[in-house]
């Protein structure tokens, strides 16, 4: 088997996760291409079910026949470890040395402080002895001198210990800031792929292949950069992508693309069934299904006889699994404890021999030992495990058969009885449970007798496993296995060192998924929330680098062609200031997703504004702040009078005048908004009449995403540089004298 180096060429970052493409070249040796190759160095967070490989260039007919995931363990030399790791190990060694010296000095100080003079007990009747003052003074002087020296050393070592502790913390932070692709472990675990080629392997030219795989631990959000001149007449909008990834490998010099699609969404072509007019016929059997062979129980007769004949001390001991890993909380089909107990009961219900005959030739197995109830691990071919970190193989004692009928019954009578038994057992049972249930006659026989089809999981032979011969109820039949356990077991056979593969793989997945908890940049919106009902893909214009450090990196994607129209907006009745706005018309075939846009006016950074989602051909208004060089003044006058032939109505006259001054060095197009009274349809006796408007105004059409304001009128005027423009409007509100406007008649 040849191990070939590969290069990461392109990466497509989806809403969650990424799709990576690696390329490698196979060169012929002695005129032949290798039949099997191995690609190492794949990230540990790789999803094994996403592996794809194909031949891009090579001899005609060369195909990838098989592709299997496996593991690769590397022991890197000292030279390949990062310098930060060497610094951390040196700092930890220095801290350990200082700590040991400090503990030794402290123990010596404790021992010196215990040096005190003592006197033996005097016998009765003897006079007291004279105190040895010279010896006591000598001992006290020795203790004081030694304690002074040791305490000075203790103070110095405590200072060194604090400095060494700070140095270790600093070096640990430096190591944590490293990219996850630069592992500091002495033994590194990677994923690998085994490719088997078929076809014309005899060739004189190189063959180029690509390997695709999906990884977890990558996200992206859109951001934008808008550069405008001072005149606001034209501009350039560039789309950027803020990318964060912690997949375990650095993306260096890759062609990056981002997509709003989800990697978890399945896109299978539906199976269209034909409609036939005529006599009813039974549906054809699905390809791939085969009933269990008759006489399956006799296949294990020798095995059962051996276990009965041998004494207990000579029975072969079951070998423990080579790798032990914790079982998942629920198996691949999502059963909980109650559903698993139902599966076990149904398995025991269908546990009779073909035709319902009891198993008289095999003695019943001993009952399993009582064990505490686990948290829901479904063990294939065995009872519940009292220890979730170990696999237990055992037999489930089958109760009395539910259909005690002779085996040699008639065919029609036998099918009728099976149908009745299946219907009774199907009451309240899920389809997936019965599809996995085995019996002497097979679950498919019972399901077909009841007019049902086997579950789709029984047709995925790659995810099925054969039960152990020690399990009488399931042996000789295939059952689905838990996905988390099977993915590691499938590729663990080639690892020859003792590595906690399942634990390291689970840690890598948790470490990769931690990017989902990192706060995104301000005003960014996840692409799945702003993409509406479409999916889009954006390709970067140049190759880029994104390290696997769990931090946000801004990557330039593409330049978006836009049609810009500058416009100044003012609502003097609410705010007597003029605001700069730009109308963005998306003239590109790409949708612009919601996100922050950094606006640069001339050579100065102006502000950051939120940009809403802008589809192809749509127009949105982007605010750019206040324009101080434009000034607006608004004056109002209100008159109230009595009208009508008999004075039975009130006439409310509103006068509004607006003056705009342009102190810019260029003309300015200004939209000035006013609001007049709006009469609801239920009030037939109210009238609003526009008497005089100079210059004329019009009713505005709101842009997509903007709400229409009832009674709004807009003046659109062009004010030359250094000049002023005046506008005035008069409207009259007529209402019965017995009524008054809500909130007062004065409306200006």
Automatic annotation (TrEMBL):
<feature type="region of interest" description="Disordered">
    <location>
        <begin position="385"/>
        <end position="413"/>
    </location>
</feature>
<feature type="domain" description="DUF4139">
    <location>
        <begin position="211"/>
        <end position="736"/>
    </location>
</feature>
<feature type="domain" description="DUF4140">
    <location>
        <begin position="11"/>
        <end position="112"/>
    </location>
</feature>
<feature type="compositionally biased region" description="Acidic residues">
    <location>
        <begin position="322"/>
        <end position="340"/>
    </location>
</feature>
<dbReference type="Pfam" id="PF13598">
    <property type="entry name" value="DUF4139"/>
</dbReference>
<dbReference type="InterPro" id="IPR037291">
    <property type="entry name" value="DUF4139"/>
</dbReference>
<dbReference type="Pfam" id="PF13600">
    <property type="entry name" value="DUF4140"/>
</dbReference>
<dbReference type="InterPro" id="IPR011935">
    <property type="entry name" value="CHP02231"/>
</dbReference>
<protein>
    <submittedName>
        <fullName>DUF4139 domain-containing protein</fullName>
    </submittedName>
</protein>
<feature type="region of interest" description="Disordered">
    <location>
        <begin position="311"/>
        <end position="373"/>
    </location>
</feature>
<dbReference type="InterPro" id="IPR025554">
    <property type="entry name" value="DUF4140"/>
</dbReference>
<feature type="compositionally biased region" description="Pro residues">
    <location>
        <begin position="361"/>
        <end position="370"/>
    </location>
</feature>
